[in-house]
Design a protein that fits this description.
The chain has 16 helices and 15 strands. The chain is α/β, with parallel strands linked by helices and 380 residues long. The strands form 3 sheets. The protein has a 9-stranded mixed beta sheet, with helices on both faces. α1 packs parallel to α2 (69-82), α1 (31-44) packs across α10 and α6 packs parallel to α8 (213-229). The chain is globular and about 55 Å long.
Length: 380
C-alpha cells in the first residue's frame, strides 16, 4: 500500500501578519529537543507501517529551512531508516527566501529532496513589509537561482492576491517575474483574513486597506488567464503547473488517499480515521519523551462524511470526480445518488459532465465553495 508523509516543522524566523498556521518564532532553544521528539515519533511508526511504501514526503511549516543543517540531516536519516521509500519518491521541502544558501540546498539534494516550495507571496517590494515578510523581492529571485545551482528543477512558488494595497498591476508583475524565472509550478492563493491574526485585528479596526470584492475577482481572473496564456495547466483550484509537474503529495489529499502526519499539529488520515497531534510544541516534546501519544483529537469518519469529503476534494481538481472510482469505493452510483444536485449545479454553469467524470467549469472554479457545500450531507 502507498502512503504519503507530512512532517511539520512549526518554527519560523518571524510570523507573518496573515498567518494562522501552527508556527512560532523565537523558539530557537527548542530546535534540538523538537527534532529529538520528531525522530522518536518517526521510529514509533515503524511497526505499524512496515508493509507500506512511502511515495511522497512533504516537509512543511512554519519554515523547515530555519533549522540548522545538521538537524535536518538527522531528520532525513531517521526517515530513511524507518520507512520504505519508493525509488521515485517525491520529497518536498518548504522554504522561505532568505533562509536558504547553496550549501544547505546541496545538502537537501544529497538527502533525496527533489522538490522545493518557496513562500514568495509577491515580488513587489512595497507589499512584502505589509505582510510581515522578512525577505526581499531580490531574495525571492535569488532563492530560485540558488535552487537551480544546487540541482533542483522541480520548484514551486507560492503567490498571493487580494493583499493590502495590492493592485492588479502588482499581480501582473509578480506573475511575470515568476514565469520569467521558468519555475514549473505556481500556487496562487487569495488572502483570507483569519481570526486571531494581526490582520484580523487591523481589519476589525478598519486599518487594513484590502481590495474590494470586484478588484479581487479581477485579480483572480487575470491570474488564471495569464497563466493559461503562459502555458501553465490549472490542475486544481489554486495550483498551476507546466505539464508533468503536478505536486504528487497534494494530489494525495485531493484523491482522498492515506497520509501520515508527524510532528506538532500534524494531521493524519488512514483507513477512514483522522487524527491530529497537539499543536503545542512543548507539549508535543514532553509526550514523546514519556513515550506517550501526542494525539489531541481523533475522529472515525462515518460513511456519509467520507463520501462528502471524497466528492469535494475530487472536484477541486481539473480532472474532477471519476464516477467509476467513486462507485468502486462506496458501492453506489454517483450519478443516481446526486442527480438533482448535479442537474442544479449544471444549470447554473458551475459543473459539467465529461464522460464518466464530473468537473468544475471555469465559473465553478471561481465559485467552488458553492459547489462543494451542495454535496454536504444536509444539502445533497
Amino acid at each position: 500500500m502507498k502512503l504519503g508523509l507530512y512532517i511539520h516543522i512549526p518554527f519560523c524566523r518571524q510570523k507573518c501578519l496573515y498567518c494562522d498556521f501552527p508556527s512560532y518564532d523565537n523558539l530557537t532553544h527548542l530546535y534540538q529537543d523538537y527534532i529529538d521528539a520528531l525522530c522518536r515519533e518517526i521510529a514509533e511508526q515503524k511497526s505499524r507501517f512496515s508493509g507500506w511504501v512511502v511515495d511522497t514526503v512533504y516537509i512543511g511549516g512554519g519554515t523547515p529551512t530555519v533549522l540548522p543543517g545538521e538537524l535536518l540531516g538527522r531528520l532525513f536519516a531517521s526517515l530513511t531508516a524507518t520507512f520504505s521509500l519508493e525509488p521515485a519518491v517525491e520529497i518536498t521541502v518548504e522554504a522561505n527566501p532568505g533562509t536558504v544558501n547553496l550549501p544547505l540546498l546541496k545538502a537537501l539534494r544529497s538527502w533525496g529532496v527533489n522538490r522545493l516550495s518557496f513562500g514568495v507571496q509577491t515580488f513587489v517590494p512595497r507589499l512584502l513589509p505589509l505582510l510581515g515578510r522578512v525577505h526581499t523581492a531580490e531574495q525571492g529571485i535569488e532563492a530560485v537561482e540558488l535552487a537551480r545551482a544546487a540541482g533542483f528543477d522541480n520548484i514551486n512558488l507560492d503567490l498571493m492576491y487580494g493583499l493590502p494595497e495590492q493592485r492588479q498591476a502588482d499581480v501582473a508583475d509578480s506573475l511575470s517575474r515568476a514565469t520569467e524565472l521558468g519555475v514549473p509550478h505556481l500556487s496562487v492563493y487569495g488572502l483570507k483574513v483569519e481570526d486571531g491574526t494581526p490582520f484580523a485585528v487591523s481589519h476589525a479596526a478598519g486599518k487594513l486597506a484590502l481590495p474590494d470584492e470586484t478588484e479581487e475577482e479581477a485579480m483572480y481572473d487575470f491570474a488564471a488567464a495569464f497563466l493559461r496564456q503562459a502555458g501553465y495547466c490549472r490542475y486544481e483550484v489554486s495550483n498551476y503547473c507546466l505539464p508533468g509537474y503536478e505536486c504528487r503529495h497534494n494530489l494525495k489529499y485531493w484523491h482522498y488517499q492515506p497520509f501520515l502526519g508527524l510532528g506538532a499539529a500534524a494531521y493524519s488520515f488512514v483507513d477512514g480515521v483522522r487524527w491530529a497531534n497537539t499543536p503545542h510544541v512543548t507539549e508535543y516534546i514532553q509526550a514523546q519523551r514519556k513515550g506517550a501519544l501526542a494525539i489531541q483529537e481523533r475522529e472515525v469518519l462515518d460513511r456519509q462524511t467520507q463520501i462528502a469529503e471524497f466528492i469535494f476534494l475530487a472536484l477541486r481538481t481539473a480532472a474532477g470526480l471519476d464516477s467509476g472510482i467513486f462507485q468502486e469505493r462506496f458501492g453506489i452510483s454517483f450519478w443516481d445518488a446526486y442527480r438533482a444536485t448535479i442537474d442544479t449545479l449544471a444549470q447554473r454553469g458551475l459543473v459539467e459532465r465529461c464522460g464518466n467524470r464530473l468537473r468544475l467549469t471555469d465559473l465553478g472554479m471561481k465559485f467552488g465553495n458553492i459547489v462543494f457545500s451542495s454535496f454536504l450531507p444536509d444539502k445533497a
